[in-house]
Design goal:
Largest sheet of chain A: 2 strands, antiparallel
Structural class of chain A: mainly alpha
Shape of chain A: globular
Strand content of chain A: under 5%
CATH topology of the largest domain in chain B: Rossmann fold
CATH topology of the largest domain in chain A: ABC transporter involved in vitamin B12 uptake, BtuC
CATH superfamily of the largest domain in chain B: P-loop containing nucleotide triphosphate hydrolases
CATH class of the largest domain in chain A: Mainly Alpha
Helix content of chain B: 25-40%
Number of helices of chain A: 16
CATH architecture of the largest domain in chain B: 3-Layer(aba) Sandwich
Order of helices and strands of chain A: HHHHHHEHHHHEHHHHHEEH
Helix content of chain A: over 70%
Structural class of chain B: alpha/beta
Strand order of the largest sheet of chain A: 1-2
Strand content of chain B: 15-25%
Strand order of the largest sheet of chain B: 6-7-8-3-9-10
Oligomer: heterodimer
Largest interface: A-B, 31 and 39 residues
Number of strands of chain A: 4
Radius of gyration of chain A: 24 Å
Shape of chain B: globular
Largest sheet of chain B: 6 strands, mixed
CATH class of the largest domain in chain B: Alpha Beta
Distance between the termini of chain B: 37 Å
Chain lengths: ~425, ~260
Amino acid sequence: MQHTSSFHFKPYNVGRWLVWGIFALVLVLAPLVWTSGLSQIMLTQMGIGIIACLAYNLLLGQGGMLSFGHAVYSGLGGFLAIHTLNLATSGALPIPVSLVPLVGGVAGMSFAILLGYVSTKKAGTPFAMITLGIGELIWSMSLMLPEFFGGEGGISSNRVIGPPVMGISFGPQIQVYYLIAIYCFICTAAMFALTRTPLGRMLNAVRDNPERVAFIGYDTHWVRFMAFVISGFFAGIAGGLGAINTEIVTAEVVGAARSGAYLLFTFLGGATFFFGPIIGAVLMVVALVLLSELTKAWLLYMGLVFLFMVMYAPGGFASLIMMNLRVAAFGKLRQLWTAYLALAGTALTALLGASVMIEMLYDLQLSATLGSHLAFMGVSLDTKGVDSWFGAGFVILTGVLLFELSRRSFKQQWDGVQEEIEKDIKRRETL
Amino acid sequence: MSNAPYALELRGLCKQFGKTEIIRSVDLCVKPGERVAIIGPNGAGKSTLFNLISGRFAPSSGEVLLHGARIDGHKPYEINRRGLSRSFQVSNLFTRLSVFENIRCAVLWAMGYRYAFWKFLADLDDANERTDEVLEMIKLDKKRDVLATNLTYAEQRALEIGVTIAGGSSVILLDEPTAGMSRSETSRFVQLIRDVTVGKTLLTVEHDMGVVFGLADKIAVLVYGEVIAFDLPDAVRANERVQEAYLGSVVAESQAAGVHV
């Protein structure tokens, strides 16, 4: 959050306590508001995702390290955790379930020490390529070492060990949720604290200008390496929590798809702000659980959203929020709402047209045997008829055209508002 | 600190890129507290010399001694930890950090905080005080919360010097600190450099003869990778070889431009 020095809540420390208080409150109250089984599973996954994405953003946003293989550390943490859980179940290792995620953390950290020493020697593209290589290496090992990785079926376990302690057996999902919520809060606070320490700040400096860092006494390799190890630790904790939550760990947790999801959703949430990955993690679970239920073409929609964000809002949702908060703080958000309405309306129109076409295409490819009629938002579409294709194309064209027009007028208004704000700031400075 | 007679000493320093000799056997002895300006035509190897001293490049042969100890071939951060700091010709800052953070980053190692992740920056009173002190010295205290990328050119040059001197190094290398500045900014800047380098050993690369004669105790003239003169300003001005090789034309030019040297 250090990039928003021009905007912060007035009594600074009160503001910070308030933010952390609300975060804790949300973690406590969320499962009481969303009580269904599905939503509790989703909330649990969100808690894990928040830790994983924040850990990933230590590299991406804080340190400027683009990793394509961070699932290696969360995944290996998960495997070590599930093996530990099995040892605990068999009575060979007396360790409470609540501490198993820490085993995952130490495992993630150990592998980060081992593998990260090599990758952090480089920055930029070489770093990214090395992480990609290490990711592939571990993935191929998962096929070669079925004793450890469990082969196709993975390693399963049972999180309920012995009699309940103070009524807690970790049998019910809600108990697992609160365990994860506690870990989530502590890990988030610890990672935020890290951004306020000498190492955290030097990590930002290494991101901005590694060359200069070397001339003020710091070894850039060591700064990157330490951040990498710390990130591996938190990723391992996320992996360990995942192992407890699902009671099964399969090789896909170290795979490239998982690594890609961390990158994608951390970016979507916003890598330039500390809290961006929290938004990203929530989106990740919503997309992976809900969107994938809703439509078979969900990956395509995700790709479109990603493209759109990279092009128009490279700071992710967090930067969109902060930019609008800034406008609101200067009392100018009112000037923009009609433009926002136009943007939303035209974007939805274009999206509607596009999704009709995408769904019809998928229907043609995947459900051809079930006839050519597709139910879409209560309307029956004929996937083989010219009308529906023509209609969809027309809607897309109109939507895109109007969207581009309203985007241009929005940009004009937005730039105008920003100029006014700059003038306001200058005026305040001279007072 | 050792009792070496020289703060910085170069012995037979050579650097080749491929077959091209950029620096040819440079010898130079700088006493503690001296201000030395290195001048020379474009391509003479001034910046390369700085890069060799500060550890950006390793020399092909020869020695660099800082307070009597060899530093040639060492990494830039090792050399910096031994008390040598440099600035860059093109501002080399932490663009997405504020002015205050830029300076604070530069004081952290010298104050012994190293890679600490168990201490909050806000609690490091000595580092924060030193940072404020430096901000006042370079007259950027009013811009402390501005991102480095949003500063004006002259402010970025000032911050560049601030980052260089903040760690308290005893030997300071400034690479064209006034490049691209207006006349009035330059004279203000010369005073600023004087102020922030009191009691330090200073080497600067400079094109502006006004700055050179205003700032330096001694002048080293570098031509085609060789030091052809290293003496007091008046002696250098009178030196025939220097006039022949370089200075004469520049003095004539700058006199034509109305600068009193």
